Amino acid sequence: MATARWSIDKWQDLFRAIFRAEHVAFFPHKVFRWDPQGIYLDCFYPFKCDHLLGGEGILGKSVREVLPKNVSYAVQKALRQTLRHGLPQEVQCVLPAGKRFAVASIRLFPYDSEVLGFVTDHDLSGKPVFHVSPDHPSLGFLKNVAEIPQ
Predict the structure, then answer these.
(1) What is the pTM of this model?
(2) 43-51: which pairs have CB atoms within 8 A and are 24 or more residues apart?
């Protein structure tokens, strides 16, 4: 099982394989990599955004240490199901966001012996918390990818 953090290039390669810039409305706000025990191994933020639970400070901690009890139970269960069946799962949970609350939509996908969690935060009305346009500078890696000479 790999536990080292991925390089920015590896995360960007993954995003290039999945998304194009015009898919920005479907971009996750953050991506986490968990081991089978629910330990945060890595994270990637495609663009600068606020973090409800600490950003990179959660790496090395378990889902149970980071998330509220009822939420951690649901996420841990989805992690186990994702690994056991090799099928994506989705969890939606309400998390405190300062004086307000946000709904975190977490789509979990098996990846080797680990799980990738694509997270999109919404307000209680269902609107994404972060609005990014296809020309956002953080997403430049999706455009004008130089082809390797042959």
Answers:
(1) 0.83
(2) 44/6, 44/8, 44/11, 46/15, 46/138, 46/139, 47/130, 47/132, 47/136, 47/138, 47/139, 48/138, 49/121, 49/129, 49/130, 50/97, 50/129
Fold adopted by 8-142 = Beta-Lactamase (3.30.450)
Pair 123, 102: CB distance under 8 Å: yes
What are the distances in angstroms from CA 9 to CA 13, 14, 142, 145? Answer: 6, 9, 12, 12
4-43 per-position pLDDT tens digit: 899 989 998 888 888 877 777 778 888 999 999 999 999 9
Write b or e for each residue in 39-74: b if 16 or more Cβ atoms lie within 10 A of its Cβ, otherwise e. Answer: bbbbbbbbeeeeebbeeeebbeebbbebbeeebbeb
- Please provide the size of the chain in residues: 150
The rounded distance, in Å, linking the Cα atoms of 26 and 109 is: 16
